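Protocol step 4 of 5: obtain the predicted structure for the target chain.
Materials: sequence only (see below). No template structures provided, no constraints applied. The aim of this step is simply to have a reference model before the mutagenesis design in step 5. Sequence pasted as it appears in the construct record:
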Amino acid sequence: MNNKYLHKKNGDKKLNVMFADFCYYNRHTLASRYTPLGIGLIAQYSLQKLGDDIKVSLFKSIDKFINEAKQNPPDVVGLSIYYWNMAQSQYVVKKLRELFKDDVKIILGGPSIDSDKKEQYKFLSKTFPSVDALIVNEGEVGFYSILKKILSNGKKTFDSPIDGVSFLKDNEVVVGKPVGTTMDLSTLGSPYLSGLMDDFMHSDYQPLIQTSRFCPYTCAFCVSGKTRGKLRGYPLEQVKEELRYVSKKYADRPHHTMYMADENFGILERDVLIAEEIKKCRENFNFPQSVFFYNDKRFTQTSRSVIEVLGDINQYGLTLSLQTENPETLKAINRRNVTEEEIDSAINWASNLGIPTTTELIFGMPYENRNNFVDLLNRSINRGFDSVLCNNLFIMDGIELNRPDHRKKFNIKTKFRPLGTNYGKHDGNFIAEHEEVVVSTDTFSYEDFLEIRSLNFMFYAVFSLNFQKWFFQFIRYQNIPLSDFFSKFVKPDRNLKWPKGYLKFLDDFKKAVEGELHNSRDEVVAKTKEIFEKNGNDVGEPSRINVNLGARLIYQESAWVKPVLLHHLNEIIKNDLTKENQNLASSLISLAERERIDLKNISERKPLDL
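Step 4 output (structure tokens):
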């Protein structure tokens, strides 16, 4: 950079600023592409502050980004990074340096940037050794501060501290004044209303809307947990106008879901008014037909009102994400859950209104063990949750549990697995993302992991895919703990005579679980590259075991499902299973089978003979 960028008013060219939030484009990622709201907001603020001194552009596609960069070399690049595009971003940084050497300033921001100085040093020296700086927490102020210094004197941009920014100088991290979450949202316009996001609204991107910022909860397993600050909302009238604008744009695509990017929608009293505006948009523009959001973890009266207002367009009803209830674990991860009374009250309230209830749990947490996690699974069922989902803890940049001292303290051991079909090639270079999952701790062995992973699959199959949902409702009302039944299902006595198809399914499941786990990221890259090349330079089937084998269990294994389920039922209840209940269980299994339609072989269903 040089003095040609001093100011537009002197007749010099604009500073070319390119923003990117990369994603993967293949047949399996269609539903996971979102409008780039994060970089849109930073670009919006930069334009508000610097006006004609800069030119901005937004990108999701590596192809479009690189092509544009070659035609119009950027002066500054801002990349939003998270675990799902880390490898893509590393590749692009390397490509930019090959193309433009030091003539481009490369800035990173996003959830993966830690507030810990040691983690920032690792990022700047090892993970992204070619970038110029990191934006910590919210990006608007930090990025604007960098642009302002470049416009003043580009050669000395990183000679002195910059507010909200970290960079390396003489192999030391220079940290500017923390700006945290202090952005005055009343001064930040909407990138939707300004037209910045229009290029992403005539396509398959799902719309992201943010009405407030900051999460007051400090969970150590979440990227938001490291942030300290103040909860703030955008101007209410601006939010309403933005909702109307987006809804009009998507009126011809009602199948899309509106995703609320708030970390706790329903935490502010005014969120009820926002929910009412969303409902009006549906009535006036036929969009949205479906809204996804994370409700406030405390689930106050405001949260209830929001859910009541949204009604049937609320995609997942009421979700109380308990994650864990082990006191030692809650302390270790800096979390405080709702009380037993609050849980019961919320479930009763939702049940009376016909609203489905869900809880999400995480296994592999510090101090969690096999027994207390299984107890929590059973307790969640007994409380009356309609759906219980359990997820494997995974470690990523930007969360406190990823820091070396936390890993060492809890003896966290991990393995690596592919991240869905987030892989592909660009210009002959193979790129792949990964997840780093926790497979053991001081209190949780690898054998425990494999057992809970099996339960995780069964809970997903039953509660997310509705595998034999009527039969398992029957099991619940027989007071049989679902985890007990699931454990017997996935680990039967092999001395007994079982259908060959059943045993093969279980063997395939175990092989898939252990086969997707690797000892290093390099192994993940090699494996996905092998799949890609075997498929003629295309992605294979999604590596999500729960989805793949859950669908197989439902659609391809019906020959043995009924006798196996009934056998396990008889083994558990033994002499207490009446003939009437046995017939009822058998009929419920048949009912579930008739509910499924084989789209490849559509035929008329015979009436169920009860």
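Step 4 remarks: Residues 1-11 have pLDDT under 50 and may be disordered. The radius of gyration is 26 Å.
Proceed to step 5.
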